[in-house]
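Lecture 7 notes: from sequence to structure.

We start with a single chain of 270 residues. Read the sequence below before looking at the structure.
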Amino acid sequence: MNLIDSHCHLDRLEFNHPDENLQTVLAQARDRHIGGFLCVDIDLDNFADVKRIAESAPDIWCSAGVHPLADLNPEQLDSVRLKSMAKSSAKVVAIGECGLDYYYKKDRQAQQRAVFEKQLAVAMELELPVIVHTRDAREDTLALLDKYTSQGLKGVLHCFTESMDMALAALEMGFYISFSGIITFRNASSLRDVVQAVPLDRLLVETDSPYLAPVPHRGKSNRPTWVLEVAEKVAEVKGLDLAEVANQTTRNFHHLFPTEYTGTSASEVQ
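Now the structure, written as tokens:
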């Protein structure tokens, strides 16, 4: 079997033992047939670490971008610098994570929109997909995405927790929807309804590690290896074999992101 953790923060993992490090954590994931990792940037200052990690192994990629909660004013986001970072390595396969989060920053909505739009423009210029974080900002997120998807922008709404209507609107724009360990939580029945509704060929799985560990690991620092639990829940909700979910979500990942991937045949996913 071959799975992809389509969104993790490998530069921010927490290690539980003195002999544990990034390499041991990745080895554990690979032992569970996790065959790829997208290490996602959240601000310009940590990009060097993110890129270094991505360039350390052939099965790791990264992004370049600024999270909506980074408290960055629009004039502080240097689009030239962001473009330079994104073009600095073939391992950079996306812009983000970027987006809108009105749950925590209701007083900075205008600044968030401006920072988000600058990153969407960079993604369009570089012809890279965008990784979108959205929370309690449905209308504004969809409005900005619609402006750029009409020009050909592609991307994913990561760690999706919003409504069915928002998922369907994003799918209509050509976006992918990515689900995290939240879908395993007992109180996430409405989100599992969204999982059921999203076509398998438009779905990704992720951990968002070190955050949001899935059941039965809740309360622990999340690990990329636990993307398997997310995929298992997707398979359960959709009434599919785990192999089918693994195969298709892996294909989806490499279709969305420019990873120079040649594909995994169904016979390779067991």
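Confidence is low (pLDDT under 50) at residues 262-270. Keep this in mind for problem set 3.
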